[in-house]
Every structure is written in C-alpha cells, then in structure tokens.
Amino acid sequence: MAEVKLIGVWKQFGNFTAVKDMNLEIKHGEFMILLGPSGCGKTTTLRMIAGLEEPTKGQIYIGDKLVADPEKGILAPPKDRDIAMVFQSYALYPHMTVYDNIAFPLKLRKVPKQEIDRHVREVAEMLGLTELLKRKPRELSGGQRQRVALGRAIVRKPQVFLMDEPLSNLDAKLRVKMRAELKRLQRQLGVTTIYVTHDQVEAMTMGDRIAVINQGVLQQIGTPDEVYDRPANTFVGSFIGSPPMNFIDASIVEDERGVWADFGEFRLKLLDDQGEVLREKNLIGKEAIFGIRPEDIYDAMFAQIKIPGENMTRAMVEIIENLGSEKIVHLRVGDITFLGAFRSESKVKEGQEVDVVFDMRKAHVFDKGSGKAVF
Ligand SMILES: Nc1ncnc2c1ncn2[C@@H]1O[C@H](COP(=O)(O)OP(=O)(O)OP(=O)(O)O)[C@@H](O)[C@H]1O
Ligand SMILES: [Mg+2]
C-alpha cells in the first residue's frame, strides 16, 4: 500500500498541452477514479504515474519515493515503481493456460515454484478461477478473461494498481457484475487503486473519490456524493448524472418577497439562505445560470413541497421516455426546455400540460461567465 501524489504535473506533446498543472493526492488504500471525456488526459496522467511517460514539469511521488521530477532529472522506470497495470486491451498469452498467465509475472521475477503455486491458487480462488486454471484464454468468456488479466496484476501484490478502462470491452451486463467484483476485490486487498474511465456510472458506483478532468485540467475532486450534489462548475454538473443537470439562463432579481431566478416565461423563488448568498456575492440584478437535476423536478401530483407561485410552473409535455422505473419527461415553457425524471406512477401524456414542482433545496446557481458554482 502506498499513497500517490502529483504536484503541479504538466504534460506537453509538442505545442499541445495534454495535462495542465495536475495536483492529486491519493490516500493509502483509496479507490480513486479519473473521470472525463475522451482526450481529456486520463491515460496520459496514468502513464506518467506508471513511468511510461515523462512529465514535462512537476513531481510524482509513490509512497515516500520521488519517482518523477524532470527538474532534478529523476525518472524511475516502471519496474522500480511497484505498480501493476490493467489496460482496456488486456493481452493474455493465448498459448498459455490460465495458470501460466497468472504465474507469468512471478516467473519473470524468479520466485520459487512452490511459492508461485501458492500465490496463483490464492488469487484464482479470490477471483473464482480455480476451476478454469487449465484452460486457454480462447476457452473463456470475456468476463473470465478479464479476471485472468486482473489475477496477473494482483498476484504480484503491488503497492498500487493502475487501471485504464479495464471493463470497456465487456457487454453491459457483465460490466455491471465486474464493477461490483472489482470493488469488492479492491476492498479485500486494500491496495491503492487509480482507475480511469469516461463512464460516470462506473465512477459513481466504484470510486471512494472521483477526480473530474476536462481538457487536461482537474475540475473537481471529491466523493461521489460531493461531485454529484455540489458540482464545482457546469462541466461537472453536466458530466455527472444521466440525464445531465438542466441549465436555464436566468436573471437574479429581488422584490419584497425575496430573491428569484427569473426566466422570463416563469420564475422560481430561491430559499432565504440561497438569496443571502447571491446578495453577498453581488449577483442581484445579474445574469446567471440556474441548474437543477431532472430528478429534482416533480410532477405536482406527487410533490409534497408545492408552493404555487414560488416553486411551480405549468409546462408542456413534449416527449416521454419511459424507463420503467421512472419517466424522463421533456418539458417546455415557452422557449425554455428542460427534463424532469418523474416516478413511474405519473400519468403525464405527450402533448398535454402538467404542473411541475422544483425542489429548490436542490437548486444550483452558476456564474454566467466562468460556469463556476455559486451554490
Ligand atoms: N504521444 C502523444 N503525442 C501527441 N499527442 C498525444 C500523445 N498521447 C496523447 N496525446 C493527446 O493528448 C490528449 C490526451 O490523451 P489521453 O490519451 O490522455 O486521453 P484520454 O483522456 O485517455 O482519452 P480516452 O478516453 O479517449 O482514452 C489527446 O488529445 C491526445 O490526442
Ligand atoms: Mg485513455
């Protein structure tokens, strides 16, 4: 086990900056997710931690050891970093049995045969591969192959696991199963893990903490609840959550009744403490972005918190996506469109109007220019 630290790490490919001033501290035994869209610099960051890529600037520590610092000319090779990597394309040796595939890293290290046997069987047991040890990779399902690749990484008992989208080759159902298995395994082993994905569901369900990255820049780092409930900016708000958070352009106005988000077609009254924050930040009379998640908008029939004229409006139902467990309802008020996630009992019909209620406790306001969250 070890902690991993990145201090002011940059990666430049020619003129292109793939990673900008990355600061990350991953704790002992933590399951850290690097999450972001394609090309945001996740793999590059992981490769720098692994020692497969040299940072242009900054320091990387694994445990107490400084493994990369270009200014001091320090660059420890991968084999000296005590890490194990699992990649999206987990090439197993096709001519070797499952047993030999898992044993391979130990053989390379010239571990005594008996000890290899003990380790391989222990890992196989943990991964449910005991019955399959004599098979060749082609005789395995995708999920079983994935577990062999994991076994090969685990058997070395490294200080740190680095995983780059290891589940992306699996079908949806298997992915869900492996997600839970991987998480359980990581808990059991207690090995510090850095896991790269662009799948926000994977990030939310597996991570102790999530580092959200966009265009090489760390946007926010926090527990799944923190990044979901208190996104630092509109990017995080829209990237995490499906369907994404609604954003509506608003004017922040104040009258004798309180502070409001005014959309022209309708307005919503902000809670007293929210109004206070907006007043303190001098945002009264300014343009802003109002944000609310679809699940925080209710069919008024099922809302216990409706206050007509304050948190409610009438909206046109344009399209309903019925997911069985809930209904994603495309709503329109004049030119303003947004999504509501209604419970399945809702009787809304396409082409009809419905009263919708906004849970203002869950409302967010973002700065119009920077996209940064006010709350
Ligand atoms: N060796 C390289 N030379 C030049 N540019 C590179 C190199 N490696 C990566 N890049 C660029 O750096 C950026 C980040 O790449 P990276 O592979 O880290 O993205 P990623 O977040 O892992 O994306 P994905 O989800 O698609 O795997 C991309 O724009 C990519 O084109
Ligand atoms: Mg990648």
Helices and strands in order:
Blueprint: E1 4-13, E2 16-26, E3 31-35, H1 42-50, E4 57-62, E5 65-69, E6 74-75, E7 83-86, H2 98-108, H3 113-126, H4 142-154, E8 160-164, H5 172-189, E9 192-197, H6 200-206, E10 209-214, E11 217-222, H7 224-229, H8 234-239, E12 246-255, E13 258-262, E14 267-269, H9 272-280, E15 287-292, E16 297-299, E17 312-322, E18 326-333, E19 336-343, E20 353-358, E21 364-367
Parallel strand pairs: 3-9, 3-10, 7-8, 8-9
Antiparallel strand pairs: 1-2, 1-4, 4-5, 5-6, 10-11, 12-13, 12-15, 13-14, 15-21, 16-20, 17-18, 17-20, 18-19
Helix pairs in contact: 2-3, 2-4
Q: What tags apply to this protein structure?
A:
375 residues; alpha+beta; OB fold (Dihydrolipoamide Acetyltransferase, E2P); 6-stranded mixed β-sheet; 5-stranded antiparallel β-sheet; 21 strands; 25% helix; 35% strand; binds magnesium ion
Quickly describe the structure.
It is a peripheral membrane protein. With 375 residues, the chain is an alpha+beta fold.
Query: H/E series, N to C?
Result: EEEHEEEEHHHEHEHEEHHEEEHEEEEEEE
Overall 3D form: globular
The helical percent reads 10-25%
pLDDT < 50 stretches: none
| Distance linking N and C termini | 36 Å
Radius of gyration, CA atoms, in whole angstroms = 25 Å
**In the CATH hierarchy, what is the superfamily of the largest domain?**
P-loop containing nucleotide triphosphate hydrolases
Helices, by number, come to 9
**In total, how many beta strands?**
21
Q: What class do helices, strands and sheet pairing give?
A: alpha+beta
Count of individual domains: 2
**CATH topology assignment of the largest domain:** Rossmann fold
CATH architecture of the largest domain: 3-Layer(aba) Sandwich
- Please, what is the oligomeric state? single chain
Ligand inventory = adenosine-5'-triphosphate, magnesium ion
> Quick check: average pLDDT?
94
Q: Which sequence of strands runs across the widest sheet?
A: 7-8-9-3-10-11
CATH class label of the largest domain:
Alpha Beta
Membrane topology: Peripheral membrane protein
Keywords: ATP-binding, Nucleotide-binding, Transport
Domain ABC transporter: 4-240
Subcellular location: Cell membrane
